[in-house]
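User: Study the chain.
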Amino acid sequence: MSAADTTTAKVPPVRQSPPSSGRGAGAPGTPGGKRTTGPGRGRGAGAGVPWLLLAPCLTVLVLVLGYPLVRLVSLSFQKFGQPQLWGFQEAENVGFANFTKILTDGEFWTVVLRTVVFAGGAVILTMVIGMLIALLLQRVSPWVKALVSIVLVASWGMPIIVATAIFKWLFDADYGVLNWLIDKLPGVDMIGHNWFASGPQGLAVIMLLVVWGAVPFVVITLSAGLTQVPKELEEAARLDGAGAWGVFRYVTLPILKPIIVMLTTLSVIWDMGVFPQVYVMRNGHPEPEFQVLTTYSFDKAFVVNDYGTGSAIALVTVFLLLGAVAVYMRQMLKIGEVE
């Protein structure tokens, strides 16, 4: 026997199975007679399942938001007042006359500027105070954190009308607690001070009311986001010589950026649409220096009974809010590209 015979293994030939013609036979090359499906087969049937699950929600949105929005757009292009409301006259299409009327009105642009400044101040205060409280909650004992969380949730769940009534009492000229406390300071006389005698002071009080109601949501959301910041990165930054501000600037803030962008956008939308705080604080009749876009549109529609102009103002407000949403979507897309 040679070396080649001892090192070369002989492999027995593979037995060829005859093709079966029975009904239950599988395709050649498939084990167990099971038929395999292509990668795209069955995918089309399941593509409609998400839309089927979303159908009830989309139906409710169309009924609740779709019809009012269509009606708002149609009214903004019509002359619609009390005669049209009671059916004495037909609604008259006036094209862009309502938009021309408000866009050439100096009072409208004053209200727009006041609304933007009010919303901007409220958003900045909300985000700064919310971030500070969220960072503070990471450094206190568990029972203090639980107590503060309970207080935040309680203030967040308080109805707006009740919160507005409390703020009216706090800043009352005759019986306000704030005037009484400030009057205790040496050399300060605040007894009988009317915070709503001027527009800037009154809007500052209303801004504090808006911030007080918005801070709990921001704190709770940011606190949840801070739990996702890796402690290893913070420790590494400290070892590299970064202080508290450096750790927050280069570690915590970039990780929280998506949450901050979302909260800022939502705050802009909410604060641009503030209505009950201003309306109730001014007893249902906001003075001209207290008018924001929502109350201004309401007065034009339901006080002056010019529903076409009021609808045009409301539609312009919607477009301003859509601008904020567009900025939010752009920022989120940039964050997604970076990730």
Notes: The CA atoms of residues 25 and 31 lie 11 Å apart.
